[in-house]
Every structure is written in structure tokens, then in C-alpha cells.
Design a protein that fits this description.
mainly beta; seven-stranded parallel beta sheet; 48 strands; 3% helix
């Protein structure tokens, strides 16, 4: 069976910055002169791409108390990976310094505000001029000083490399396109954090002529290379897809990598047979640089019966459990079930356009999820739910409770995420883990909430979804019931491009003593019968939490007493 291996190596491209005092002029008044010498490290010269040579311009900004001192801003040339910046600073003052190096011809980065650099992702694939480097440092100036700095990429570099290019006629004229989901759009240079989220398409461009020999593997041909902003957290996951066309414009192959790990200043290399159909493939991040972090992606197992689905979900010793429904399939489960085992990192159920019919037992706390710290993904499915054995009178025995639990135990909860994509739900759901919900339709015929977010959940992303509960039903609720005070979080909900049709309460109601932060955009609440103006309500039994509810892009309302 053919394999695709995927290796992430820390982008060791270094921009060394050294401040020198040997040739400084005497200080004038309370000022002291500082000269920064900038150079790119020699250890990146061996790279066939991303050698740092495209960065030919350095932008330098100085901040005090979070405000830029515009008179000290400079733009200087980087020649042969070297540059110099000289300025004067007041002794005893604390400054933050931002260094940003890029290609002078590249228009992808808006640096008008050097505290928040934004990225325009409208670009073709394989553009090396988008390479850039960044560093922020902060300290109090007491005298002329020598200080070495290192600039690194604020990006993850995502590469596709082919092992089967040698036998492909005319491959150098082939073109590649790459899509990446959930990409940050803004770099906060002072905090070192990223913000925003967008789905990116790097459009078709001729594949790169370069090859590279990866450590421990063979020589591969670059098919695609792109840069995206990334957080420093190595657990950041995204979906990446490559499409290749031949010299006549005919599509050759598409490769999709779900839950692909990306990290700032790391290279993520996806490599193997990219021009032919592949079966099983593995994804790893090289332990030489950042410790052992690997995700095994396998060819989805086709299942047509409940027996085969259970057989796949209860497999042990597998990093990834991936199944694809070949027809509608029922799944009966007992209270607090968590599939996989301690070695599982991802469980993926692809409905393939069919129905996944869930059946919970007669328990107040039936739940469905992945074991330990694994992620659970359900996509491309119609999901139904039946509570076998009767009883359907409270949210906790009515909803589909998605809970990732450690080692099949009731507690503690696992750290894996819940991913729901391209699904139709005919029953309300509840979540107890961080979640991303996209392109889903929720329908509730009773008087229940469509989504119940337990108050221990830190982050929930909801995008391009519809919520319909016109017969006494409600929208989204953050709920602290059954969550201990110490475990409650100020839940962050980022919701966009969604519409609500509900009969009771506001579109989103917060019942949480720890409050919530709601970031909303393009919400349609015109069919929310109780309030088509304010998207967020604070529960009338949690009035003390009013100030802990932050809203961006919408307004909030204090629910009136019963």
C-alpha cells in the first residue's frame, strides 16, 4: 500500500540581530545611541527554497507604553542578509522594539500599524516572495548596549512534496492549488499572538522546480509551498487540500489532510505519492526539533453495518480511526461511551451523505465521544437521535451529548476537540469540549435548546449554520448547571454567518456565573420571536454575571424576571 508521510521540521531560519556599542557616539542629554546589526543565519543556506534571501527590506518600530513613537520608525535595505538600524533612546525608559523583514515587492502584508500586521491571502500558490521574519523585544534602556536578537518566521510553512514525480511526463508544467481552513489574519506584534480566521485558497501556479532530501527519507520534488500565520501552540489543527492539474489543465489528483498540525516557525511537509491515488499515509512532526508529535492519517474504512462501525470505533492501538458510511447506519451506545483508547488521537466519521442514527440508552447522562485527548470529527452526515427505553423530558436526556472522556471514565474530561462539519442534526446537541461547528443545520421540534454549551468549555467556533426551533424551541445556551464553580470558564464563542428561527429566549443565552465572550458577525436573528435586536441574553437568574458578558459585533440584553 502506498504511503504519504508528513514531516514538520522547525523552520530554523534565523535573522540574527546584534546591537553594538563599539562605534557609538557619546550620548546627548538623557539619550543614548543604539545600533542594531541585522543578519540572517547561515544555517538556512542549504535549503532549496526558503533560504531567507527574498527578505530584502527591514521595517523597524519603537513603542512606549503600547504607543508607537513614529519618529523612530525606519525602513532599511537588507543586503546579503544584513542590515543596520541606528537610533537614540532615552535612558531609564522602557521600550518595545518590533522588527519585520520581508520582500520589498510583496504587497501581502499591511504594516501601516506595526502593532497589528495583517495578511492579504489573495495570492497564487508557490510564491516565495511572501517569506517574512519578525521579532519583538522589550527592555529598559540604561546605557549603550550590545544585545543579540533572533528573527523567526511568524508563519507555518505548508509544503507538499512528491515521491512519484520522476515518472510523470511534463511534470514541470503541472500546476498546483492549495486550500487551508481557519487561517489567522492578523499578527499582534507586541503580544506575539494571532487573531482572525479565514479560509484561504492559494490559486493555481506552476509547481516549483526544486527538490529536497528530507532527513531519514528520500529526495522529493516540491509540488506546493505556502505560508500562513500560525500560533505557537503545536496543537493548532487545520484542513489542508492540494489539487494538481497537468500541463493541459486536466485535474490529476486531490489530496486532503484533515486535522493537519501547523505551528509558527515550523515547516509542515506532506510527502509521498501525490500524482497517483494513495491509500494509507502517515503524518509526523519530526522529533529532532520539537519533541514527538505525530498524527497517523489512514484511509477511511468503509462500513455498511452497525457491527462493522462498532468494530472500527472500538479498535485499539490506532492513532487515527477513520470510517466512511456506505449507507445509513444505526449506532447504539450506553452511558458515557468514549471510543478508541489512550493511543487514539483522532476519530473521524465521514457520513458520505448518509445518516448516522444514534441510539442512547435510558440514562440521564448518555454521551458519545472519543477516548482520552483524541479529537472527534463527524462530517457529511445527517445525524438523528433516539433515546431508547423512554424518557425525554430534560436537556441532558434529550440532547446528543458529545463528550470526550479520559480512558472511558466518567471524569476527567479529555482535551480533544469536537468537530462537526457539513451535517444536518434533527435533534439538539450538547458539548463539553472545545468545538468547531461549520456548515451545519440544526432542527429541534420540541422546546429544547438547539445547542447546549457546558460552562467548562473554553472555546467554541460556529460558522455558517442554521438554527430552527419554531415550536417552542430555543437557540444556543451556555449552561453552568452541573458544572462546579471552580470548573466554570468565561466561555468564548466566535459565531458568524448564522441564522436563527426560534420561539423562546434570545438567540444566545448565557447562564453562567463566569460569563462569556461572544464575537459575532453577520448573524440573522430576524426570526427570533422573543428578541430580533439583541443576539445575546443574560439569564435572569445570573444577573450578577452581567459585567462578565462581553459582546463584539452584537448587543446583549438582561432577561427580565419570570
Amino acid at each position: 500500500m502506498k504511503k504519504i508521510l508528513f514531516l514538520g521540521a522547525m523552520a530554523a531560519m534565523l535573522l540574527g540581530i546584534t546591537s553594538c556599542s563599539s562605534d557609538m557616539e557619546p550620548a546627548m542629554g538623557g539619550e543614548t545611541p543604539v545600533s542594531f546589526s541585522i543578519n540572517l543565519g547561515d544555517d538556512i543556506d542549504s535549503r532549496t527554497i526558503s533560504d531567507g534571501l527574498k527578505a530584502d527590506q527591514l521595517k523597524f518600530a519603537v513603542f512606549e507604553n503600547g504607543e508607537e513613537i513614529h519618529g523612530l520608525a525606519q525602513t532599511v535595505d537588507v543586503v546579503d542578509k544584513k542590515a543596520t538600524v541606528t537610533t537614540r533612546l532615552v535612558k531609564g525608559h522602557t521600550y518595545s522594539f518590533v522588527f519585520w523583514a520581508q520582500n520589498s515587492a510583496c504587497t501581502a502584508y499591511d504594516t501601516n500599524d506595526m502593532s497589528a500586521i495583517t495578511v492579504d491571502y489573495a495570492a497564487n500558490c508557490n510564491d516565495e516572495t511572501r517569506d517574512a521574519f519578525y521579532k519583538m523585544d522589550s527592555f529598559t534602556v540604561s546605557e549603550a548596549f550590545e544585545k543579540e536578537e533572533v528573527l523567526t518566521r511568524p508563519f507555518a510553512q505548508i509544503n507538499f512534496l512528491a515521491s512519484d514525480a520522476a515518472g510523470v511526463l511534463g511534470v514541470d508544467a503541472y500546476k498546483s492549488k492549495v486550500t487551508v481552513t481557519g487561517v489567522p489574519t492578523t499578527l499582534n506584534t507586541l503580544a506575539g499572538t494571532v487573531a482572525g480566521s479565514t479560509d484561504v485558497t492559494f490559486d493555481y501556479a506552476t509547481i516549483l522546480p526544486n527538490e529536497e532530501t528530507l532527513a531519514g527519507y528520500e529526495t522529493y520534488k516540491y509540488v506546493a509551498m505556502n505560508y500562513v500565520l500560525a500560533a505557537t501552540d503545536k496543537e493548532m489543527k487545520t484542513e489542508v487540500a492540494l489539487t494538481v492539474k497537468d500541463e493541459k489543465g486536466a485535474e490529476v489528483n486531490t489530496v486532503t489532510v484533515a486535522n493537519c498540525p501547523v505551528q509558527r516557525n515550523y515547516r509542515t511537509n506532506i510527502f509521498g505519492d501525490l500524482f497517483t491515488l494513495q491509500g494509507k499515509f502517515n503524518i509526523t512532526i519530526d522529533p529532532i526539533y520539537a519533541g514527538d508529535h505525530e498524527v497517523e492519517l489512514v484511509e477511511a474504512t468503509p462500513v455498511s453495518t452497525e457491527e462493522k462501525l462498532l468494530e472500527a470505533l472500538t479498535a485499539t492501538g490506532k492513532s487515527t480511526i477513520s470510517v466512511k458510511l456506505m449507507n445509513d447506519v444505526d449506532l447504539h451506545y450506553t452511558a458515557r461511551v468514549a471510543y478508541g483508547d489512550a493511543s487514539t488521537k483522532d476519530i473521524i466519521i465521514d457520513g458520505n451523505g448518509h445518516s448516522l442514527n444514534l441510539h442512547g440508552t435510558n440514562s440521564d447522562w448518555n454521551s458519545f465521544g472519543a477516548c482520552g485527548d483524541a479529537n472527534l470529527t463527524i462530517k457529511n452526515a445527517t445525524v438523528t437521535y433516539t433515546r431508547d427505553g423512554g424518557g425525554n423530558n430534560a436537556w441532558n436526556n434529550h440532547a446528543i451529548n458529545f463528550v470526550n472522556r479520559a480512558e472511558n471514565l466518567q471524569n476527567p474530561l479529555g482535551t480533544g476537540k469536537i468537530y462537526l462539519k457539513n451535517c444536518d442534526f434533527s435533534n439538539s446537541i450538547a458539548i463539553s469540549n472545545d468545538a468547531e461547528i461549520e456548515n451545519c443545520n440544526f432542527t429541534e421540534v420540541g422546546g429544547f435548546y438547539l445547542i447546549m454549551i457546558n460552562a467548562n468549555v473554553n472555546n467554541t467556533i460556529v460558522k455558517n449554520c442554521t438554527f430552527s426551533a419554531p415550536n417552542g424551541g430555543r437557540g444556543i445556551k451556555v449552561n453552568d448547571q452541573y458544572i462546579g464553580e471552580a470548573d466554570r470558564a468565561q466561555c468564548n464563542i466566535n459565531i458568524s454567518e448564522c441564522s436563527f428561527e426560534t420561539a423562546s429566549k434570545g438567540a444566545i443565552i448565557i447562564t453562567n456565573t463566569a460569563g462569556a465572550k461572544i464575537t459575532a458577525s453577520n448573524l440573522d436573528i430576524t426570526k427570533v420571536a422573543a428578541d430580533n435586536v439583541n443576539a445575546v441574553w443574560n439569564d435572569n437568574k445570573r444577573t450578577a454575571a452581567w459585567d462578565l458578558i462581553e459582546v463584539i459585533g452584537c448587543t446583549k440584553f438582561q432577561e427580565l424576571p419570570d
